[in-house]
Amino acid sequence: MTVAPGPLSGKPKITVLGAGPAGVAAAYALTKDGKARVEVLERAPIAGGNSSSFMIDGIWCDYGSHRFHPVAEPAVLDSVKELLGDDLLLQPRHGRIRLGGRWIHFPLKPHDALLRLPPKFAASLLSDSFLKPFRKKSTGPVTFSSILYDGLGPTISENFYFPYVRKLWGLDPDKLAVKLAERRISGNSVSKILLKMAKMLPGLKGKTTGRFYYPRKGFGQITNAMVEQAQSNGAKFRFEADITRIEHDGNHVTAVWTRDGAGELRHESDQVFSTIPLTTLVRLMDPPPPPEVINAANAIRFRGMILLYLILETDQFTEFDAHYFPEIHIPISRMSEPKNYNSAAGPKGVTILCAELPCDPGEKWWGMSDAELGDHFCDWLNELGLPVTVPVRRCETRRLANAYPVYDLDYEQHFNTVDQWLLGLEGMLVFGRQGLFAHDNTHHAFAMSYGAVDCLDEHGHIDHPKWAEYREHFAHHVVED
After folding, report:
1. What φ, ψ does residue 437 adopt, rounded to 5°?
2. pLDDT by residue (tens digit) across 263-307?
3. Domain 13-52+220-300+409-474: what homologous superfamily?
4. CB 10: neighbour CB atoms within 10 A?
5. Are 53 and 252 in contact, with CB atoms under 8 Å apart?
6. Which pTM does this prediction carry?
7. What is the pLDDT of residues 14-24, one digit of tens each?
8. Of 28, 464, 455, 442, which is closest to residue 218 (Cα–Cα)?
9. DSSP category for residue 456
10. What's the CATH fold of domain 302-405?
11. How many Å apart are CA 349 and CA 346, to the nearest integer?
12. Does position 202 have pLDDT exceeding 90, yes or no?
């Protein structure tokens, strides 16, 4: 009997490394229009990476505070809307931040800032703005510290950004690269902050100003929907597949090897799309890259984080979706209440607070038990004037070793060494937050994937000049808070 060829027969085969947001979006985009046969290799048992969701006591939780921002590129936003339909909620942002010892609405609103900022703090901000043209510019090497100080002045720099980045990255601001200010801080001048505040005024607000998209079943519902659609279009996902090595002959990648319960397996394809951490990618290359590439990869660092989930016996702890804590004496950087993100009415009698505690393996927090960390969490809330007066069921934690890329003063040199070597390989394209060492939002990762797919021709080759144009565009991504 003759079997008719399938709809994807004759199409190039793509092996995708990693089923985080970038890998999943690539599989979805590749199969949506039947552009390729796709196999996704993922070490974890599920897709989504740090953008997946899970349930604790009947409540959908994320790995920290996640939002899908309306500023996403139209093609990306349209895809997410199409996939989730009515399950994609447009929610008002309702957070607050500690400035000068007081709670201020975040994102900043003009009337709230005027009424709640301590007078001395507000006067200093206005003074910084007025004196900016006359302020002496920083001398010496240009760093994150000098860019923020020159742009925003001493008050907001020293009372918010500097202590906040010390917590997030574990480094002083003058040890961090300019690139962090460019990619992490959209309001890096007083005029930009005032403009963003003005857009919150009635009559100037757009439909999505001060709002965010959020799925009914947690942020991970986005990647889950992409996986399901990609699978229905023919993509194959291999979970708990441990990549052992990436075989290459000179500058041509020939195969990827994995190991699972059945043993070692060799995966051949026309093109490998890698979204795994570039440091891991270098270590997997067989034969190994030149010594200078290995040394550069070893010098690239990621910042770790512990996520603390405090389960409380009450319907709601506060009305706010997120709290931001810039003060250096409070170790956590942000706290979210998951039920407030999707306006969940249930389950009754329980809510969860998720705190983000930046730290690396080996630091004192990393080795503490969940119960110990829960006790500290309660102590920090009490110190902030948010005492926990309801019964605490328990505290659970999740530990992320590679939460944020560390943009220290030498990172760009090391990254460029690794990146240039990887760009010289045929048969492999590297992208995504982990692959390009980019401190980006999830919608940026999706945009990278769509760009990568757009550069693939019908024979499985990459249009490298077009990819270079996309890379230039990606370099201007700015994180949305």
Report:
1. 50, 45
2. 899 999 999 999 999 999 999 999 999 999 999 999 999 999 999
3. FAD/NAD(P)-binding domain (3.50.50.60)
4. 9
5. no
6. 0.92
7. 999 999 999 99
8. 442
9. B
10. Polyamine Oxidase; Chain A, domain 2 (3.90.660)
11. 8
12. no
